[in-house]
Design goal:
Helix content is 40%, strand content 27%. A hairpin with a 2-residue loop joins strand 5 (149-151) and strand 6 (154-159). It has two domains: 21-109, no CATH class; 112-203. By secondary structure, the chain is α+β, with helices and mostly antiparallel strands.
Length: 206
C-alpha cells in the first residue's frame, strides 16, 4: 500500500509526463502521438520542434511555413511506424527549421556595416535599420533613417508619401551600390542624395 508521500510523488510524475511533449499527452489519440508520449527523447524532440517552428516564423513567410509544417506532419511524421523513424524525421525537420533562422542571420550580417562615398555615409545595422547622411552646400544636410527590406537579393526602402526610394545591391564584402532617389523631404535646401558605389569602412558585428 502506498503512503501519502509515494502517492503524491506518483501523481506529480503522472501530471508532468502528460505534458512531456508540446501537446497534452493525456489527449494523445493517434499511434504516432502515443509513441511520442511514451519515449522521453521523442517528447523532448517534439518540444524542440515546437520551439524551432516558432523561431522560424520570425524569418520565413508564416503562412507558407504553416503549410509546409502541415504537409510534414501529414506525409512525413505520421507515416512513421517506429521510434527510430520518428526520431530521424524529427531531427531532420528541426535542422531545417533552425536553418531558416541561420540563413536569415547570415544574409543580414553580410549587409551590416558603415559605408561611405565622398560626403555621403550609410550605416546598416544587423537588424537592417539604416541611417543615411550627406553634406551639401552651406553645410545643409540630408538625414534619412528607416529599415530596409531584403527583396530578391537587394535591400529596399520606400517612403512613397515623400517620394523617397532607396535600393542597395551587394557587390562584394567591401562594396555596395546605392541607387537613391531625390528624397528631398529629408534634405536641406542645398543638400542632395547621390547614387553610386559605397565602400565599406567598418563591419558591424551582430
Amino acid at each position: 500500500m502506498l503512503n501519502r508521500f509515494q502517492t503524491a510523488l506518483l501523481s506529480t510524475l503522472m501530471v508532468s509526463s502528460s505534458y512531456a511533449a508540446s501537446f497534452d499527452c493525456r489527449k494523445a489519440s493517434t499511434e504516432v502521438e502515443k509513441m511520442i508520449c511514451s519515449d522521453s527523447q521523442l517528447s523532448h524532440l517534439d518540444e524542440d520542434l515546437h520551439s524551432a517552428y516558432k523561431n522560424a516564423q520570425k524569418h520565413k513567410d508564416p503562412q507558407l511555413l504553416k503549410q509546409q509544417q502541415l504537409r510534414w506532419l501529414k506525409y512525413t511524421r505520421n507515416d512513421c511506424t517506429t521510434l527510430t523513424c520518428l526520431k530521424d524525421v524529427y531531427e531532420l525537420r528541426i535542422d531545417r527549421l533552425n536553418g531558416y533562422a541561420l540563413r536569415n542571420h547570415r544574409s543580414r550580417s553580410k549587409w551590416a556595416g558603415e559605408y561611405s562615398m565622398d560626403s555621403d555615409d550609410l550605416k546598416i545595422e544587423p537588424s537592417l535599420h539604416f541611417s543615411y547622411s550627406s553634406i551639401g552646400g552651406n553645410m545643409h544636410l540630408c538625414n534619412i533613417e528607416g529599415k530596409f527590406r531584403e527583396v530578391m537579393g537587394k535591400l529596399k526602402f520606400s517612403d512613397t508619401s515623400n517620394n523617397c526610394h532607396i535600393s542597395v545591391t551587394y557587390r562584394n564584402p567591401q562594396k555596395i551600390t546605392v541607387d537613391i532617389g531625390e528624397c528631398r523631404y529629408y534634405c536641406g535646401m542645398n543638400a542632395y542624395t547621390e547614387s553610386g558605389e559605397f565602400g565599406r569602412d567598418k563591419t558591424i558585428e551582430p
